[in-house]
Amino acid sequence: RFGNVLGSSGSVVPLFRQQIKEGGPVTLTHPKITRYFMTISEASQLVIQAGAMAEGGDVFLLDMGEPVRIADLARKMVELSGLTVRDGDNPEGDIELSVTGLRPGEKLYEELLIGDNPETTEHPRIMKAREDFLVWPELSRKLNSLNAALDRNDMVAARATLAELVSGYSSTGEVSDLAFTGADTNTAALDVQRARL
Q: What positions belong to coiled-coil segments (predicted)?
């Protein structure tokens, strides 16, 4: 596991670069959101070195240093482009930073390690996660239980099974059991309902 790879597809850096090139605005989901970043070289080294250490089923984490505030990154990219940020302090600036709001499920702070107490490895910047896992027979049983709940359109049971399967799972919103409420239960409606889990 590692954070965002600078310049990779879907990364904020190419997005911000394009938005700056087009005259803005540069869009942020939240002014305080932070993310970890690494270079393509660092990401490649992590994968190769962690692969050499792996014994099977291991999860490794790179020491990524301090998280970067995305608003600071956007501001710095505007300035490095030879432009200025348009804000309350500089209403005549070139590029506006626009806050669009957090997307569903998006967090302000990135958590790279799920478990507690990561173990050190031979490499000073690579740690090994000590995370809970289910042996295949138990995982298979729970997945079958989840599938059965979905086949019955029992969203309460499906959420309960997800809570057992995924450490820290918490569903947002109300259960929308279309079969129970008597709403249209066609396949498309059920697919939408399942997607909300």
A: none
DSSP labels, 51-91: HHH--SS--EEE---S-EEHHHHHHHHHHHTT--EESSS-T
Single-letter residue type at 39:
T
Question: How far separated are the first and last CA of the chain, in Å rounded?
Answer: 24
Q: Indicate the CATH number for domain 4-128.
A: 3.90.25.30
pLDDT tens, position by position, 80-119: 999 999 999 999 999 999 999 999 888 898 876 655 677 8
From residue 132, give the alpha-carbon distance in Å to each of 1, 28, 42, 63, 114.
Answer: 16, 34, 27, 21, 9
- Domain spans, the chain: 4-128, 136-195
Residue 44: CB atoms within 10 A of its CB come to 12
